[in-house]
Amino acid sequence: MNDIDLARAKKCSRLELRKQQNEIINKLESNYKTLEYSEKKELYNDLQILESIGNYRKGFYSGSQLNLLTKAEYIEMSKTMNDKAIAKELDVSVASIGRWKKSKNIDWKEVASR
């Protein structure tokens, strides 16, 4: 799920989120044996992101909210906060922020240019 799809998913209703989740589940169930590992992993990740958005809408805040953070949002937050403060704001560990930054290929030079 790219940033455009993520932004679109954040704006849709819970019913639309459920519909998107069902579509992904149907893709996984109907094509499980023919899908490559990377495709399955991407679909599971998309499903997890949609679940996080739904939980956020319901008022459940958890560590999975880190999946909703975009690279641009992180860079904007890092202008006024350090990683420890960002982790506290998102209710995750600093190590989780580090793993997230590594998965998003955020280099210290990008953040240092603030």
Brief overview:
The protein has about 110 residues and is mainly alpha-helical. It is built from seven helices and no strands.
N- and C-termini, Cα separation: 27 Å
User: How many separate domains make up the residues?
Assistant: 2
Along the chain, the helix and strand elements come as HHHHHHH
State Rg.
16 Å
Helical region count? 7
The portion of residues assigned to helices is 55-70%
Question: Average pLDDT value?
Answer: 83
Structural class: mainly alpha
Classify the beta-strand content into a percent band.
under 5%
Query: Got a strand count?
Result: 0
Largest sheet: none
Describe this structure in words.
- With 114 residues, the protein is mainly alpha-helical.
- The chain folds into two domains: 1-61; 69-114.
- The protein contains seven helices and no strands.
